[in-house]
Amino acid sequence: MREIALAGGCFWGVDEFFSRKEGILTTKSGYSNGHKLNPTYEEVCTGTTGHAETVYITYDENVINLETILLKFFKVIDPTSMNRQGNDLGTQYRTGIYFIHPEDETKALEFIAKMQPKYTKPIVVEVEALSNFFDAEEYHQDYLKKNPRGYCHIDLSIE
């Protein structure tokens, strides 16, 4: 089992998207890499906590590897958009690859370097160690399963 945390705008869609992929064992919505302990959704939305809406993913590397996860991630985000995805705007909606295992930093940076020629603008996805992660409130967990008509900025049918 391996872990990675991905910030791709609103966590509802990212969580639902990855929860449907073979080899993904668990997904959890939360707030990461900010400076406030145990922030609430309302606090994160102010943009003052430094946190990004993030999905913590555990996966079976015998079924899906990190590069495949990152390829899927790049299909549902705009990696050239700073602090914005879809209609969501603010630092809490920035994109990021937050690694748990140090060797994943190199893999993520190599992946971004390989992807950059496909874009006319610079890729602005953060690559950082996961410095903290706080679970989002229960109503945010599996939000789109609980609210199938809820807002989502990504196309969940993308493979």
Walkthrough of the structure:
- With 159 residues, this protein is of the alpha+beta class.
- The protein has a single domain (2-146), classed as Peptide methionine sulphoxide reductase MsrA (Peptide Methionine Sulfoxide Reductase, Chain A), CATH 3.30.1060.10.
- Helix content is 26%, strand content 25%.
- It is built from 5 helices and 8 strands; from the N terminus they run βαβαβαβββαββα.
- The chain has helices at 11-19, 41-45, 66-76, 103-115, 143-146, and strands at 2-8, 24-32, 52-59, 84-85, 88-89, 95-99, 126-129, 133-135.
- The strands form 2 sheets. A 6-stranded mixed sheet has the order 7-6-1-3-2-8, covered by helices on one side.
- Strand 6 (95-99), helix 4 and strand 7 form a beta-alpha-beta unit.
- The longest helix has 13 residues, at 103-115.
- The protein is globular.
- The model has no long low-confidence stretch (mean pLDDT 97).
- Keywords: Oxidoreductase.
- It catalyses: L-methionyl-[protein] + [thioredoxin]-disulfide + H2O = L-methionyl-(S)-S-oxide-[protein] + [thioredoxin]-dithiol; [thioredoxin]-disulfide + L-methionine + H2O = L-methionine (S)-S-oxide + [thioredoxin]-dithiol.
CATH superfamily: Peptide methionine sulphoxide reductase MsrA
Distance between the termini: 22 Å
Helix vs. strand class: alpha+beta
Could you give the order of the helices and strands? Answer: EHEHEHEEEHEEH
* Rg (C-alpha, Å): 14 Å
- Any guess at the CATH architecture? 2-Layer Sandwich
Low-confidence segments, given as residue ranges, are: none
Please indicate the count of domains.
Answer: 1
CATH class: Alpha Beta
